[in-house]
Amino acid sequence: RSSDAESFPLHTDESFLTQPARWVLLHCWQPDPEGGGSSLICERTALSKTASTTQIGELRQRMLRYPCGRFPVIAADDRLRFNADDCQPESDADRGWLQEVADLAATAATTISLRRGDCLIMDNHRVMHGRLPFAENSPGLLKRIRVI
Predict the structure, then answer these.
(1) Dihedral class, residue 97 (left if φ above 0, else alpha if ψ from -120 to 50, else beta)
(2) Is the entire prediction scored with pTM above 0.90?
(3) Among the four residues 45, 81, 84, 96, which has the most C-beta atoms within 10 Å?
(4) Mean predicted lDDT score pLDDT of the chain
(5) Per-residue confidence band for 2, with pLDDT thresholds at 50, 70 and 90
């Protein structure tokens, strides 16, 4: 999916694994000359500040099913885990909750435009990341590296 020009919703990497990678690095080799493809970042603390008291309770307690087990969005040790594409909703309520979390994250997100040579280092246990769309034939090139 990251090979197309469409936007990429906020998520944590490797949510389908019991122990997702700790660090995600995005290295900009060539920015999009039209300014597209900016990175979106949503920190756990920003998500919590945006959420209502009820939503914070659900973020910490409501379990979502992934291929590797059931997890809340914010675990007891404060690790984030969210990827609507990897999640296996078990009900319409779960599907609604996935959209609610996605909307909260989008509201809390910050946009970052990387320049050639920039390297964004993210704690995958603490932030969600995503991407805005870019032109179909953009020469922009961003490399991603995951570190356990």
Answers:
(1) alpha
(2) yes
(3) 81
(4) 96
(5) very low
Examine the pLDDT at 66 and tell me if it is beyond 50: yes
* 17/87 Cα distance (integer angstroms): 11
For strands 39-43 and 127-131, give the pairing. Answer: antiparallel
For the record, the structure tokens of 28 come out as: 């900009």
End-to-end CA distance of the chain: 22
Give whole-number Cα distances, 51 to 93, 111, 127, 130, in Å.
Answer: 18, 19, 15, 19
How do the domains of the chain map onto residue ranges? Answer: 8-147
Residues across the chain: 148
The pLDDT value given to residue 28:
97
